[in-house]
Design a protein that fits this description.
- The structure holds 3 protein chains of 3 kinds.
- Chain B has helices spanning 13-27, 30-58, 80-103, 107-129, 133-152, 157-188, 203-221, 230-236, 239-263, 267-294, 298-314, 316-320, 327-362, 373-376, 378-391, 398-412, 418-442, 456-474, 477-483; strands at residues 6-7, 61-64, 75-78.
- Chain B is an all-alpha fold.
- Chain C is an all-alpha fold.
- In chain C, 76% of the residues lie in helices and 0% in strands.
- The radius of gyration of chain C is 23 Å and the shape is elongated.
- Classes of the chains: A mainly alpha, B mainly alpha, C mainly alpha.
- Chains B and C meet through helix 5, helix 6, helix 8 and helix 17 of B and helix 1, helix 2, helix 3 and helix 4 of C.
Chain lengths: 505, 498, 127
């Protein structure tokens, strides 16, 4: 079985890569074939990832490796951190695909859309499976290239401009990352990601270099993770179709950035070395500023998707905050938020997409009475929004609980203040939406009601995904203690990153 | 040391076969001409593969044509570098041949193209297999004259003036180079590269000789600021010719410079000339990229991009020159440069072919006529975009591997200042490529006008080359290992350090 | 001045004169002629290089090279003359008058039929 184990990571990539190639090869109007291939690929990927989880829990090693350059390997390997991100990507790919099939029904250029969509997921999976920095970088760049067509998908002037902005930010970010990687390679040689970091032996002799490299790497990753002041592309990219926003904001791009920061801090530098170098405090400060800034900007947005986008800016930095507060509890909070924020935010974008698709509602001020018209959609939205605010027993509560605990444990009480303020702000910009949707009567006719016949409020393709993810939000919170819950995986990871017990001071 | 090299009579085949094809193709009637040409292209491809296989299996080889031997006779020589250049020419040459069968409509065009193209191929293979300075001159002239004629074959005012300008630069370049060769002969009495080993460029006459040689070659390679002839010539030629010019012809004179620098120049001469070449290369990267950014015609943009990409090639000289620091990394810079030449050939060939397909289908190639082509010509536009990934040097393309190795080598040899230039050049490339890609894929069509139907092979050859550029990145280890065969550096470089 | 020196200085004189002609003279025919003057200078260098003293016979190798060079030069000149005739027929002048900047403009003109207004150009130039 060794050969299969060494091929599995590649197979996981191939499921979506092959899907993409087939989709591009099929004609634009081969809708049934495309839908079939797409769903087949997504299900196959999910099954393979499931197998990977099971295998990993049995202690098996899944690693694909071949020489990329002399002395530098291309490594795809499944570790517990991988599982966290790839399960999220694979699961949400399936749901988003279902959603997108319904959402884009009858619109032009669907072949291009689904093709790049699959490529985008391939890149995300590659990012999660990357076993060293250069492999990570390959997929990180691929992600930029494959998401650009999705951002400009509509082809309007606005979309093209948003795409150009997106490219400027992300390519500048990758230049920074390339420089950091190069520098690191020159002083440390080639190495694979390893729990608790690999640079510790260099800590004393290369202090200033390591700090500068950290700044270059995290600066590059921070663009995609939308850390202030590198976040501007994200709200602008809202011109993309809803499924893209859902995937970009919940999973692919911002998470790739956040996941990269996690990898750099834990598996390249190691939490201890990072703390000794003094790079974690500025990172925490940036994260805190981003959390507050994003929430404040979200308050002022009337456009539904823009509000969600600024909320994303804020929420993704919870991950960075958790990573940069030294200590196992904060780490758990940050890492588990990687998954939790993903399922919550994607639910919200699905709901926003449904409101736009079914009723033509794009603004929050037009949401009055939507709950009665779209009960399933808005119920899902409500669960996700309450989760974001941190209401127990939903997923967001678990994240915030561990983050707060971690902040207290690390003696960083100011972080508690940031969390509390951010929760209040979350409530301040989400609750009005819920209030309008459920308690206000409909005042005006819907801007552009889409005729829909059927027992459901909207087509099954569009209703199922948000309901499913909302259910996940509930389950992830309720069953956080179950051995296969995100929290349990995060516990395993945290134990690897902080090997010695009682290390946190 | 020559005596120990294996004698390989195959070395003459990649020169004789295309020459023979050129003769046959010029005599046959139209229909048979194309068939004979394709057969000739296949034969040349196979012969090149045989030479490459010989080098890979048996190491560097040498052949005395007619049994004469240096210094009087003509020697052919092949090592890893030669093998890779032959491979580059064979792959791009085969693609060009296939592409050309679909590109040229009239019998007149075919009568012009096929014989000239095989003369060009002959010249290129001969150049890469040559082992002495005078034969470099001869082969340069064969390449130069056939290239000028190919540019002129389009027959319009722009093409003709571009060809005339190209002719004068090419002729002057070779004359200047030849002046250097004459001085070298007066000094050393030999022109064979191995006999000159490590001796060139010492003393006043030697330095003057070297200066003449280098200037002549720089003009032929279109290095900034001697590049002005290139964009008009490369952009007004027919697409298969543009692909050959940008992908192969400029590499010919670059090859001579590379070969002579590291096998025949004295260390002191190379150390003096290296930084100078690096600075010119750097300026070419910036200037070419900025010019590419302002072009409105696709083919002109691609041609200016060539100016920039040639610049990268010259960055290897300061990094790989002796005394630049870490010895293992000098050799890697040298090999990274070769690898860049390979991936550029594939990517640039693909771009020109895609541009040619667009030109054929739309009738124009200004950026507004590119609108909406992503849907109408999906394969050609994808080929352009995929090739663009390699030109931007984004992973996992061959361009990325070359750039990464060059970057690491630059930093490891203490010349970190090339790094911002290379990274910035990549960003500029992204800017000028996305500027065109944006029009192709994400703008609604400018008009509802139907496209002229074009043979599918125009699009698919371009795509195949673009994918080759990408594949070079995923399987870089093999060509890199070939480049090390007979390289003028310690042999254990490949495993030494990281 | 020895014979070799005389040859060499003449050669350099011819080279410089030819170079000047190629670079400065606009008419293509003059440029071709100047190139031939340059080649003559170059061949003279080879002839001088072949000199091995008053007693010894001259070195045959440079002579062989000169012969090769003459063949190439003759063919290149023939080809150049033909090209010039074509240029004259098509453009009406035997000059390279079109400078690179004008050339791009001319290209654009020939392709689109009219020059785009500066306004649209500016808008399109945005990355």
């Amino acid at each position: 079985m060794t050969s299969f184990d060494s091929l599995l990571p590649l197979l996981v990539l191939m499921t979506s890569l092959v899907t993409a190639v087939i989709i591009f090869a099929l004609g634009e109007d081969r809708i049934r074939a495309r839908t079939f291939v797409n769903l087949l690929g997504a299900v196959a990927k999910l099954a393979l990832v499931g197998y990977m989880i099971w295998g990993l829990s049995q202690g098996r090693l899944f690693e694909t490796r071949w020489p990329f350059m002399p002395q530098l390997d291309f490594v795809l390997r499944a570790d517990s951190m991988t599982i966290l991100f790839s399960t999220l990507s694979a699961g949400l790919w399936l749901l988003t695909t279902i959603y997108a099939i319904g959402y884009l029904e009858g619109s032009p250029n669907r072949r291009r859309f689904f093709g790049y969509f699959s490529l985008c997921v391939t890149s995300t999976m590659g990012i999660s499976l990357a076993g060293n920095l250069i492999t990570f970088f390959v997929f990180y760049e691929l992600l930029t290239l494959t998401t650009y067509p999705l951002v400009v998908h509509r082809g309007t002037e606005k979309a093209v401009r948003a795409g150009s902005m997106y490219l400027r930010y992300t390519l500048a970010g990758s230049a920074s990352m390339l420089a950091g990687m190069l520098w690191l390679y020159v002083i440390a040689g080639p190495f694979d990601f390893r729990a608790a970091g690999v640079l510790a032996p260099l800590g004393d002799s290369h202090r200033p270099q390591l700090i500068a490299i950290f700044a270059l790497l995290v600066g590059g990753l921070g663009v995609k993770a939308a850390i202030v002041p590198l976040h501007k592309w994200l709200p602008t990219a809202m011109v993309a179709p809803a499924p893209v926003s859902a995937l970009l904001h919940a999973v692919a791009v911002v998470k790739a950035g956040a996941f990269g920061i996690v990898r750099v801090v834990y598996d390249v530098y190691g939490a201890e070395l990072a703390r000794d170098l003094g790079v974690l405090t500025p990172l925490a400060a940036f994260a805190a500023i981003t959390i507050l800034y994003g929430s404040l900007r979200a308050l002022a947005q009337d456009d539904f998707k823009r509000r969600l986008a600024f909320s994303t800016v804020s929420q993704v930095s919870y991950i960075t905050l958790g990573v940069s507060l030294f200590g196992p509890m904060a780490t758990m909070g940050g890492l588990v938020h990687l998954v939790h924020q993903g399922i919550m935010k994607i639910t919200m974008f699905f709901a926003a997409g449904n409101a736009a698709e079914a009723l033509g509602v794009h603004k929050i001020s037009e949401l009055d009475g939507v709950g009665r018209r779209l009960p399933g959609t808005m119920a899902s939205f409500t669960i996700a929004a309450l989760g974001m605010i941190g209401v127990p027993p939903l997923a967001g509560f678990v994240s915030k609980w561990y983050l707060g605990w971690g902040a207290a444990e690390a003696g960083q009480y100011w972080a508690l203040g940031v969390l509390a303020a951010s929760s209040l702000l979350n409530a301040a910009y989400f609750l009005p939406i819920l209030y309008r949707a459920w308690f206000k009567p409909q005042r005006h006719p819907w801007p552009h009601e889409h005729p829909h016949s059927g027992r459901l409020e909207i087509s099954w393709w569009l209703l199922f995904p948000p309901v499913a993810t909302a259910a996940l939000v509930l389950i992830a919170g309720l069953f956080a203690g179950h051995p296969f819950s995100p929290l349990s995986w995060v516990q395993i990871i945290t134990r690897q990153e902080y090997p010695a017990p009682g290390l946190s001071d | 040391m020559n005596e120990t090299l294996r004698n390989d009579a195959w070395l003459a085949a990649p020169i004789l076969l295309p020459l023979l094809t050129a003769l046959i193709a010029s005599l046959l009637p139209d229909r048979a001409r194309v068939r004979a040409s394709l057969a000739g292209a296949t034969a040349t491809f196979v012969a090149s593969a045989a030479v490459i296989a010989g080098v890979v299996r048996g190491g560097p080889g040498r052949h005395h044509l007619g049994g004469w031997g240096a210094p009087l006779g003509i020697d052919l020589y092949a090592d890893g570098l030669t093998a890779l250049m032959l491979a580059m020419t064979a792959v791009l040459g085969a693609a060009i041949s296939v592409y050309a069968t679909g590109y040229f409509h009239t019998a007149r065009e075919r009568r012009c193209f096929w014989p000239l193209w095989f003369v060009l191929w002959t010249g290129l293979n001969a150049l890469f297999l040559t082992a002495d300075l005078f034969n470099f001159y001869v082969t340069l002239e064969v390449v130069g004259l056939s290239a000028v004629a190919l540019v002129a074959m389009e027959g319009g005012p722009l093409a003709l003036t571009a060809a005339a300008r190209y002719l004068f630069v090419a002729m002057m370049g070779s004359l200047v180079y030849m002046g250097g060769v004459a001085l070298i002969y007066s000094q050393y009495g030999v022109l064979d590269l191995t006999l000159l080993h490590g001796r060139l460029g010492v003393g006043p006459v030697g330095r003057a000789a070297l200066a003449l040689m280098v200037v002549g070659l720089l003009a032929k390679t279109a290095v900034f600021p001697l590049h002005l002839w290139l964009p008009p010539a490369h952009s007004s030629a027919p697409a298969p010719v543009s692909a050959a010019l940008s992908g192969l012809v400029v590499k010919g004179s670059f090859y001579i410079l590379l070969r002579t620098s590291f096998s025949s120049f004295a260390d002191s001469a190379l150390a003096a000339i290296g930084p100078f070449l690096g600075v010119l290369g750097g300026l070419a990267v910036l200037w070419g990229s900025l010019q590419a950014l302002t072009q409105d015609r696709l083919k002109l943009m691609v041609a200016y991009s060539t100016v920039a990409q040639i610049g990268y090639l010259f960055l290897l000289f300061p990094v790989a020159m002796p005394g630049a620091g870490d010895a293992a990394w000098q050799s890697k810079a040298y090999i990274a440069g070769i690898f860049h030449a390979l991936s550029h050939a594939a990517a640039k060939g693909a771009m020109f072919m895609a541009a040619g397909a667009i030109l054929h289908a739309v009738g124009r190639d200004d950026k507004n006529s590119l609108r909406g082509l992503g849907e109408k010509l999906p394969v050609a536009t994808s080929a352009f975009a995929v090739a663009g990934v390699s030109i931007m040097a984004l992973p996992p393309s061959g361009g990325f591997i070359a750039k990464w190795m060059m970057l690491v080598a630059a930093v490891r040899t203490g010349q970190w200042w090339w790094a911002p230039l290379m990274i910035g050049g990549g960003l500029l490339a992204a800017a000028y490529i996305f500027r065109m890609v944006k029009f192709m894929f994400f703008q609604p069509p400018a008009s509802a006008a139907e496209l002229h139907p074009i043979p599918r092979r125009l699009e698919f050859t371009a795509l195949a080359l673009a994918l080759t550029a990408l594949a070079l990145g995923l399987a870089s280890v093999y060509p890199l290992a070939v480049a090390a065969i007979g390289a003028p550096f310690p042999s254990n470089w490949f495993t030494e350090s990281f | 001045m020895s014979t070799a020196q005389l040859y060499l200085s003449t050669a350099v004189f011819l080279l410089v004169m030819g170079l000047y002609g190629v670079l400065v003279r606009p008419h293509l025919l003059r440029k071709i002629t100047a190139l031939n003057v340059m080649s003559a200078g170059l061949f003279l260098i080879f002839v001088a290089v072949a000199y091995r003293g008053p007693e010894a016979p001259p070195d045959p190798v440079p002579h062989a090279m000169v012969l090769t060079g003459i063949v190439i030069s003759v063919s290149a000149t023939a080809f150049g003359l033909l090209l010039i005739r074509r240029v004259l027929e098509v453009t009406g002048r035997a000059e390279l008058a079109v400078e690179p900047e004008e050339r791009t403009a001319a290209n654009r003109q020939s392709v689109t039929g009219k020059r785009p207004s500066p306004r649209t150009e500016q808008r399109d130039a945005r990355p």
